[in-house]
Write a structure and sequence with these properties.
CATH class of the largest domain: Alpha Beta
Family: Belongs to the transketolase family.
Number of domains: 3
Subunit structure: Homodimer.
Mean pLDDT: 97
Low-confidence stretches: none
CATH superfamily of the largest domain: Thiamin diphosphate (ThDP)-binding fold, Pyr/PP domains
EC number: 2.2.1.1
Distance between the termini: 84 Å
Pfam family, one: Transketolase_C_1
Structural class: alpha/beta
CATH topology of the largest domain: Rossmann fold
Radius of gyration: 28 Å
Number of strands: 20
Protein name: Transketolase
Strand content: 5-15%
Length: about 650
């Protein structure tokens, strides 16, 4: 390592250690140990342009070990992405651009929000899948307009988490040759040596998954690291996994190689000792020599040249293939809302009773031609989830142009991959499974909500209507769980009109994910439903009285039950309003005036009807209302018997209303 490279690497270490020490909080171990591999990658092997962080053909870099965020912030500062020294000084402070873990959309240059270990690995697989798909769609001979790598850096914790195995198993099956993983193997976790819980041969595991595996014995050897990265690039048929052996907390005599270097500041004296040990020329906090800044400036210019070359290539491509330029714009343009709103072929009236999962499948196949970027699939449940796009082919090692994704039985990785697809851009992802297995999807859906990604989750078999499969497959608390998640819009449609509205909302959303909660069983088409569902809650059948005697509020399969109960109540002289509530989240976003219009405070007799947990309904039912909901787990029996057994009958709804008088 020559002197300028050594100083450039140590600048990352010093800035990271100083930021963590000033905050008196953070994780110095990874930045100190992984600084050489990060520097070598960013300086000499990664296509990126600090002057244009969103350049579409840039290489992607995901720090899966998000606790090592100081490493990424130091890189962004030194390469000139706009993070200032003051930003580093405000590490982990309120409102700063340098939060404890990297946050997409908050800090320029951060490609993904990472923190839960292994999640970044899954998102990297999604990004590599997006690159492969778009390359297959758009590239022409002599015009590789989509041609970039996805790099992920993570450590032992990322490799222990099951999500990485799920995601890498699929990546190997798909032969994602543009995915390169840098494994910071320092053999230390919070509790001490990884030998206490993690002794497997990681290289053999990755080889079994179908990766090219490479090994760098010395994590400070820039030449060896660079050679491994270039060797990884040469294998175009397999993703690559590079184990780089490092020492956690490298350079700090009292902490190097120890678990105490992982998650606590080094201490003022140890930072000083580290700088002396590294031969740093000043003890001043956040000091970086001018020649180091100059070196990084030159490196940034070299990296930027790759975009200039690509811009010329893309300009020629657009001239040579104007029809592809038009398609490119459709893939990268989200302006579909007005076009869909006016499209009568989308808003069609259905007559026969159908399951909302089947109606959702119809919507997907209507949307696939209107939104060519739409891409998605299921965790081995497409025939049940009804998510196949007819005639669009399967995304595979042999056909990256296919739009139907097959995730296998890997719900957790599926969620992360969906995030990666959305983060990459150019594709609009949806993923699917049974609603009860949203438990497996939830951690990655939470990250999607945090990152404001417009991912669509298709969750079918939404209640005890699952029937004979029994309580293991019958969701109860899952709807309340997703409704409780900030920035997650949850729709449980009652019929075709509401399913159309739910899908419209999902594909036109820009800053939030949407979950569609759908039935296995057939539901009748209702008279009063329609685009009003886009307000989350609305009146579908009203009382003739200015002030209704009571209000029935329901979602999904129970809306038709409320409608039938209203007929019986009317015969008994009780005139009620029926409110369909497909999305509490969207209803809560409406004006107070509208909410009062739908649920007037003067009407205190209210009944919530939903074949799931009553948790969350209290805000609408109030102290004087009642519930027809689930209060325990389900059972194994035909669906019709279960609905009767658990009280989802007209008689029970009527009886519940009458008790309020």
């Amino acid at each position: 390592m020559n002197n300028v490279d050594q100083k450039a690497v140590n600048a990352i270490r010093v800035l990271s250690a100083d930021a963590i020490q000033k905050a008196n909080s953070g994780h110095p171990g990874l930045p100190l140990g992984a600084a050489p591999m990060a520097y070598e990658l960013w300086a000499h092997h990664m296509k990126h342009n600090p002057a244009d962080p969103n350049w579409v053909n840039r290489d992607r870099f995901i720090l899966s070990g998000g606790h090592g965020s100081a490493l990424l912030y130091s890189l962004l500062h030194l390469f000139g992405y706009g993070l200032t020294k003051e930003d580093l000084m405000n590490f982990r402070q309120m409102g700063s651009k340098t939060p404890g873990h990297p946050e997409y959309g908050h800090t320029i240059g951060v490609e993904a929000t990472t923190g839960p270990l292994g999640a970044g690995m899954g998102m990297a697989v999604g990004m590599a899948m997006a690159e492969a798909h778009l390359a297959a769609v758009f590239n022409k001979e002599g015009y590789p307009v989509v041609d970039h790598y996805t790099f992920a850096l993570g450590g032992d914790g990322c490799m222990m988490e099951g999500i990485s195995s799920e995601a890498f198993s699929l990546a190997g099956t798909l032969g994602l040759g543009k995915l390169i993983v840098l494994y910071d193997s320092n053999r230390i976790s919070i509790e001490g040596s990884t030998n206490i819980a993690f002794t497997e041969n990681v290289q053999k595991r990755m080889e079994a998954f179908g990766f090219q595996t490479l090994d760098v014995p010395d994590g400070n050897d820039l030449v060896a690291i660079g050679a491994a990265i270039e060797q990884a690039k040469l294998d175009t048929t397999r993703p690559s996994f590079i184990t780089i052996h490092t020492e956690i907390g490298y350079g700090c005599p009292a902490k190097q190689g120890k678990a105490s270097a992982h998650g606590e500041p080094l201490g003022v004296e140890n930072v000083a000792a580290m700088k002396e040990n590294l031969g740093w020329e000043s003890q001043e906090a956040f000091y970086v020599p001018d020649d180091v800044y100059k070196h990084y400036e030159e490196l940034a210019k070299e990296r930027a040249a790759s975009e200039n070359t690509w811009n010329l290539l893309f300009e020629d491509y657009c001239k040579a293939f104007p029809e592809m330029k038009e398609l490119w714009d459709r893939y990268h343009n989200d302006a579909i809302a007005e076009e869909l709103w006016e499209d009568e072929s989308y808003w069609t009236k259905e007559e026969k009773a159908q399951a909302t999962r089947a109606l959702s499948g119809m919507m997907i196949n209507r949307l696939k031609d209107k939104i060519p970027a739409l891409m998605g699939g299921s965790a081995d449940l497409a025939p049940s989830n009804k998510t196949e796009m007819k005639g669009e082919g399967d995304f595979s090692k042999e056909n990256y142009a296919g739009r139907n994704l097959h995730f296998g039985v890997r719900e957790l990785a599926m969620g992360a991959i969906a995030n990666g697809l959305a983060l990459h851009g150019g594709v609009k992802p949806f993923v699917a499974t049974f609603f009860v297995f949203s438990d497996y999807v939830k951690p990655m859906a939470r990250l999607a909500a945090l990152m404001k990604l417009p991912v669509t989750y298709v969750m079918t078999h939404d209640s005890i209507g699952v029937g004979e499969d029994g309580p293991t497959h019958e969701p109860i608390e899952q709807l309340a769980m997703l409704r409780a998640m900030p920035n997650m819009n949850v729709f449980r449609p009652a019929d075709a009109a509401e399913t159309e509205a739910a899908w419209y909302f999902a594909v036109t959303a820009k800053n939030a994910p949407t979950t569609l909660v759908l039935t296995r069983q057939n539901l009748p088409q209702l008279e009063g439903t329609g685009k009003g569902a886009l307000k989350g809650g609305y009146v579908i059948e009203d009382s003739a009285k200015e002030v209704p005697d009571a209000i029935l509020i329901a979602s999904g399969s129970e809306v038709s039950l409320a409608v039938e109960a209203r007929k019986v109540l009317l015969e008994k002289g009780v005139d009620v309003r029926v409110v369909s509530m497909p999305s509490m989240d969207v209803f809560e976003a409406q004006s107070d005036e509208y909410k009062e219009e739908v649920l007037p405070k003067a009407v205190r007799r209210r009944v919530a009807i939903e074949a799931l947990s009553d948790f969350g309904w209290g805000r609408y039912v109030g102290l004087d209302g009642a519930y027809v909901t689930m209060h325990g787990f389900g059972a194994s029996a035909p669906a019709a018997q279960l609905f009767e057994h658990f009280g989802f009958t007209v008689d029970h709804v009527v009886e519940t209303v009458e008790k309020l008088f």
